[in-house]
User: Which sequence fits this backbone?
């Protein structure tokens, strides 16, 4: 599969197709079920605490630069000056929390499937600045290679570390719920984009 995707992307680039089309996630992909975060019990490997600190540094980047936190260099070494400037801008204007979740999720990084942590972004601001959230969702997995998914947690700022989870499994009810949520998100996205 990985080799085929690389060949298809190389052919698309050779044909002069736009990068946004060549690099996009293949369709049909794994479907909506891959969006459901399922785990029976909390999962935290040896790197959990350090990764939690790094994602917090990213969403509080402006204040962390002043404090010069020991792990700040990990963010600086994995990002460009422009990306650091954007992190500084985002972290200066509104309070965003990044919480490493104690579970592993299925994700795609590059052309390969991974089983890594998920990060939940949250804020007290409503509505959240979705462009800032999207930017953080792209840069966090690039800096923390053991994070393959970033999601948004509705309901206000998450102030405490999440240590417990609700055991969740793929069932017909769960899949029906995600279909309904996807339909609502698609309708909202359509309304938003047509109003621009």
Assistant:
């Amino acid at each position: 599969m990985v080799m085929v995707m690389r060949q298809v992307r190389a052919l698309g680039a050779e044909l002069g197709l736009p990068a946004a089309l060549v690099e996009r996630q293949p369709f049909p992909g794994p479907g909506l079920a891959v969006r459901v975060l399922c785990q029976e019990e909390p999962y935290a490997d040896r790197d959990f605490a350090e990764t939690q600190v790094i994602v917090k540094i990213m969403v509080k980047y402006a204040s962390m630069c002043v404090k010069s936190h020991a792990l700040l260099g990990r963010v600086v070494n994995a990002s460009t000056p422009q990306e650091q400037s954007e992190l500084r801008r985002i972290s200066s204007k509104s309070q965003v929390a990044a919480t490493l979740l104690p579970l592993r999720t299925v994700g795609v990084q590059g052309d390969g499937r991974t089983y890594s942590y998920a990060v939940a972004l949250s804020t007290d601001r409503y509505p959240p600045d979705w462009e800032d959230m999207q930017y953080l969702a792209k840069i966090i997995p690039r800096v923390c290679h053991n994070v393959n998914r970033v999601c948004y947690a509705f309901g206000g700022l998450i102030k405490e570390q999440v240590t417990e989870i609700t055991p969740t499994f793929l069932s017909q009810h769960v899949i029906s719920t995600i279909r309904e949520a996807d339909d609502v998100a698609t309708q909202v996205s359509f309304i938003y984009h047509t109003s621009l």
The domain at 45-165 is CATH 3.30.300 (GMP Synthetase; Chain A, domain 3). The chain has two domains: 1-30, 45-165. Residues 172-195 form the longest helix (24 residues). The two ends are 38 Å apart (CA to CA).
